[in-house]
Each structure stands twice: as C-alpha cells, then as structure tokens.
UniProtKB/TrEMBL annotation:
<feature type="transmembrane region" description="Helical">
    <location>
        <begin position="368"/>
        <end position="394"/>
    </location>
</feature>
<feature type="domain" description="Major facilitator superfamily (MFS) profile">
    <location>
        <begin position="17"/>
        <end position="460"/>
    </location>
</feature>
<keyword id="KW-0732">Signal</keyword>
<dbReference type="GO" id="GO:0016020">
    <property type="term" value="C:membrane"/>
</dbReference>
<feature type="transmembrane region" description="Helical">
    <location>
        <begin position="272"/>
        <end position="293"/>
    </location>
</feature>
<keyword id="KW-0812">Transmembrane</keyword>
<keyword id="KW-0325">Glycoprotein</keyword>
<feature type="transmembrane region" description="Helical">
    <location>
        <begin position="339"/>
        <end position="362"/>
    </location>
</feature>
<comment type="similarity">
    <text>Belongs to the major facilitator superfamily. Sugar transporter (TC 2.A.1.1) family.</text>
</comment>
<dbReference type="InterPro" id="IPR020846">
    <property type="entry name" value="MFS_dom"/>
</dbReference>
<feature type="transmembrane region" description="Helical">
    <location>
        <begin position="98"/>
        <end position="118"/>
    </location>
</feature>
<dbReference type="Pfam" id="PF00083">
    <property type="entry name" value="Sugar_tr"/>
</dbReference>
<keyword id="KW-0472">Membrane</keyword>
<feature type="transmembrane region" description="Helical">
    <location>
        <begin position="188"/>
        <end position="209"/>
    </location>
</feature>
<feature type="transmembrane region" description="Helical">
    <location>
        <begin position="124"/>
        <end position="146"/>
    </location>
</feature>
<keyword id="KW-0813">Transport</keyword>
<feature type="transmembrane region" description="Helical">
    <location>
        <begin position="65"/>
        <end position="86"/>
    </location>
</feature>
C-alpha cells in the first residue's frame, strides 16, 4: 500500500471509526444472520409452545408463518428506522443518535432473552422488530458519521468499513450458531442476546470521540467546537484548510433553507442524485445477494454435499465475503466507485445467468453441481468488490450537508423495503420457478449495469462542492 493512501489515518481517527462502526453495523449484520442456524430449534420450540397453549397438534404451516413473520419483521423495523434517520441525525447529532440507538438494543435483549422463560414467541417477534428499527437507524447514522469524520481521500475506504463489519458480524453469527457452540436447545436465547456486546462497547468507546465536525459547524454553527473536533480527529492542530472548506460549505448552506422531503423530489439539482441513490440501493438488494446467501446451504446440498459440508461451505462463503470486502476497501480509493459498481454488477449478471443454467442440471450432472458451488462463491466475491459496500456511503457523498439527512432517510428506507420484498417474495417465486428464479435476478442486474453506466457519476476524491456542481449541469438534468 502506498504511503499516500494511509496518510491522514491516525490512532484517534481509527478509534472513532471502530467505535462508530463496530457497535452499529454489527447489529445490522449479526441480526440478519443469527436466525439462520437455530431456525429448526426455534421452530420446534414454537410448535411445542403452541401445542401446550391450544392442546392440539400444531400445523407446520402455522409454525412457518410465525417464523417468517419473526424473520421478516426485522426489515419492517429497518424501514421505520431508516425513515427516522434524518430527524434523529438533525436533532441529536450523528454521534448522539448512534449512542441513543443502543437503548433499543437493550430492549431487544430483554424481550428476546426472556421469551423462552416467559413461554412467549410473541416476545421474539417484538424483539426482532425493535432491533430492526435499531439497524435501520444505524444504516443511516453510521455511514453519515464515518463519511463526515474522514479526510476526502479516505472517504470511500472508511465508508466501506460499515459493510466490512456487516460481513464480519454475519460470519460471527453463523459460527456462534453452530451446534457445537450456541446452536443448541438450551443456548439459543443466549445466541440472540449476544447482540448486546457490541452495544456495550459502543456506549463505552463512542463518548470518548467527538461529534462530527461537519454537524457541529454546518447544523449547529459551532465554529470552535468543530475546529476542536477536527483537530482531535486529525491528531494535529493544522486543520486550517479543511476548516476553510467547511466554512465555505457553511456559507452556501446558510443561503439554502433546510431541505425538506418535498424539495428533494421537486428540485432537479437534488432529484437527480436522489434517483441515483434510490436506484443504487435497489440494485444492491435486488441483485439477489440475499437469495444467494440465504440459500447457499441449500444450493450446496443440491450439489450433493452432506449437511456438515454444506454448512462449512456456507461459512467459507461468509469468510470470503469478509476478505473481499476488505479488498474493496483498498480498491475503492484506487479504482473509484463507478468502476467497481460496473465491474461488480456486470460480473454478477454473467455469473447469475450461468448459475440458473447449472442449477437446472445440478440433479443429474456432477459437473453442473460443482460449477454451481463455484458460481455461488464467485457471486459473493463480485458482490463484495463494490455493490456490497459502495451504496451505503455513496448517498452521503452525493448530497451536501443540508440535504444529506433527508436523502439518507429516503435511501435507507428504500434499501430495507427492497430487502423486505426479496425476503418475502423469494421463497414463493423459488417454489414456482425453481432454478429459473435466477433468470429474474440476471435481468434486473443487466438493467442496473446500463443505469450505472449512464447515470452514476464518479465521486472519488471530489469535494462536496464539485459533486453538487456536477448535478447543476445541463447534462444531468
């Protein structure tokens, strides 16, 4: 790695990044993945519980219904949390919002942890809903804080940290959910409760870090506080140039009234970046990554791997996701955002089309079965290089301070809505269409490749002012 790339990264900035990202995106990833391994155990528990209540045997369809509500209500919470991002970010600040959000983690742990003792599966559903709101808020607040505290040339790399922690926490939840560890009849409530650990870490670590200097100056008008925060983050008092840039943005923001939701859709200079932000969020969720991650074990079983081998292969996919997201952290400042998005989605399009073909023949042909394993791995690698991480921080880069909270709210709510659509719609589609379901994903990816090529600008190393002026040009209108 060149020295220039790391310039500006010091111990304090690294600590602030860890404090903000570990506590927040960990909730997002861990609670996405944690329900996967103990699914059968919890379903059996729900089934027995319902039978004890009614005195009649429980139908599997009822259990499946309760279980899918418990899993998918996490996304409903996420939509609500996402749409509150703007309000919370403005009212309590980025850091303040992240800290307050941990109250919801505590509530979740109380509900999910006591559910088994209280003999109530409703408590698990409530817990999943609350942690969904928490994750939705985190998905907006954390990337916003991260992009506002990082120097321009590190913005992409620091923004990628959010996705990196998501992939790590999904992997952690899969490992902890193994039968040998916490995936047992007695231990699964503990597995759900471990989500409190990163929250405790954040509550201890984040108060030691400053609030976002941009928020202090641009939203609160506190010049001295902003300068102090910036000097702390940069580890030097030589922050004159960066402060001047922020003051210039402050002056231009003062002339513009606070951006409302309506304004985002009406003003062309804001509408274009909003459409781009929304489309990139849709692209990320509708790419089929959830379907591939969710069904990786099933795909591996189809390829004639036994249960343990299939589980281990799924872990390998998770581990590869972590490694490749780390690689994208380095690439994003070298290759740029647009290049990585195009490369990722184009590759995924070819990969998904081939996967649809191979899965169709997986039952009869060993070669096709093994090819589908390789294709699943390749899909995850391609997703992690760009489509996985870039959408989260691209929104923060496309908008200036006055529009950022409102725009982030819209984009995050869209992301969770798309996530919800995929998680609800995939199973019925898959039962109706079999392996052909991946043809739908391939078509969607092809569309997004075209859209990104035409419309998404490159934001690498550009200041807020340069990015805003791009959208004011006629070519984008």
């Amino acid at each position: 790695m060149s020295q220039g790339w790391l310039q500006g990264l010091n111990g304090r900035l690294a600590f602030a990044i860890a404090a903000a990202a570990l506590g927040s995106s960990f909730q997002h990833g861990y609670n996405t993945g944690v329900v996967n391994a103990p699914q059968q155990l919890i379903e059996d528990w729900i089934s027995n519980l319902k039978q004890n209540r009614t005195g009649e045997p429980t139908k599997q369809s009822e259990v499946t219904m309760i279980w899918s509500i418990a899993v998918s209500i996490f996304c409903v919470g996420g939509m609500i949390g996402g749409s509150l991002v703007g309000t919370v970010a403005d009212r309590f600040g980025r850091k303040g919002g992240l800290l307050l959000n941990n109250v919801l983690v505590l509530a979740t742990v109380i509900f999910e942890g006591c559910a088994k003792t209280a003999k109530s599966y409703e408590m698990i559903i409530i817990g999943r809903f609350i942690i969904g709101i928490n994750a939705g808020l985190n998905a907006g607040l954390a990337p916003m804080y991260l992009s506002e505290i990082s120097p321009i040339h590190l913005r992409g790399a620091v923004g990628t940290v959010y996705q990196l922690v998501i992939t790590m926490s999904i992997l952690v939840s899969q490992i902890l959910g193994l039968e040998q560890i916490l995936g047992t009849e007695d231990q699964w409530p503990l597995l759900l409760c471990l989500t409190i650990v990163p929250a405790i870490f954040q509550v201890v670590a984040l108060p030691l870090c400053p609030e976002s200097p941009k928020y202090l100056l641009l939203s609160k008008g506190k010049d001295m506080d902003a300068q102090r925060a910036l000097a702390w983050l940069r580890g030097t008092i030589e922050v004159h140039d960066e402060m001047e840039e922020m003051r210039a943005e402050y002056e231009s923001v003062k002339l513009v009234p606070k951006v409302t939701l309506k304004e985002l859709f009406v003003n062309p200079a804001l509408r274009i970046p909003l459409i781009i932000a929304i489309m990139v969020m849709f692209a990320q969720q509708l790419s089929g990554i959830n379907a591939v991650m969710f069904f990786s074990t099933k795909i591996f079983t189809m390829a004639q791997l036994d249960k343990t081998a299939a589980q281990n292969a799924t872990m390998a996919v998770g581990a590869m996701n972590v490694v490749m997201t780390f690689v994208s952290l380095i690439l994003v400042e070298k290759a740029g955002r647009k290049t990585l998005l195009l490369a990722g989605f184009s590759g995924m399009f070819i990969d998904t089309a081939l996967l649809a073909i191979c899965l169709a023949f997986a039952d009869t042909s060993r070669a096709a079965a093994y090819s589908s394993i390789v294709l699943v791995m390749t899909f995850v690698i391609l997703f992690a290089t760009g489509p996985g991480s870039i959408p989260w921080f691209l929104v923060s880069e496309l908008f200036n301070q006055s529009a950022r909270p409102a725009a982030t709210s819209v984009a995050i709510a869209v992301n969770w809505t798309a996530n919800f659509i995929v998680s609800i719609g995939f199973l019925p589609l898959q039962e109706a269409l079999g392996a052909h379901v991946f043809i739908i994903f391939a078509t969607i990816q092809a569309f997004f490749v075209f859209f990104i090529y035409k419309k998404v600008p490159e934001t690498k190393n550009k200041t807020m002012e340069e990015i805003s002026s791009m959208f004011r040009q006629i070519s984008y209108q």
